Amino acid sequence: MAGNCFSLQKEHDVAVRYFQRAIQADPLFTYAYTLLGHEYVFVDESDKALDAFRNAIRLDVRHYSAWYVNNLHIL
Hints:
This protein is mainly α. The protein has one domain: Tetratricopeptide repeat domain (Serine Threonine Protein Phosphatase 5, Tetratricopeptide repeat), CATH 1.25.40.10. The chain is built from five helices and no strands. It has helices at 2-8, 12-25, 30-42, 46-59, 64-70. The chain is globular and about 30 Å long. It starts with a helix and ends in a 5-residue tail after the last helix. The relative contact order is 0.15.
């Protein structure tokens, strides 16, 4: 929740730290990887974004949000 709040305030570096904490607390939290990927896109870290989206897909092959972004060619 804190990561989303900082993201909305355009404090993406802080949001990244909160999503990383969420993943550290629960390494199986698929959606946290997806949200982390979005934050990495905002801070122009395309490689890290793709890694985060792929981790989400690895955990849940049906996680459509990660598949959608992973397949975009803008990254």
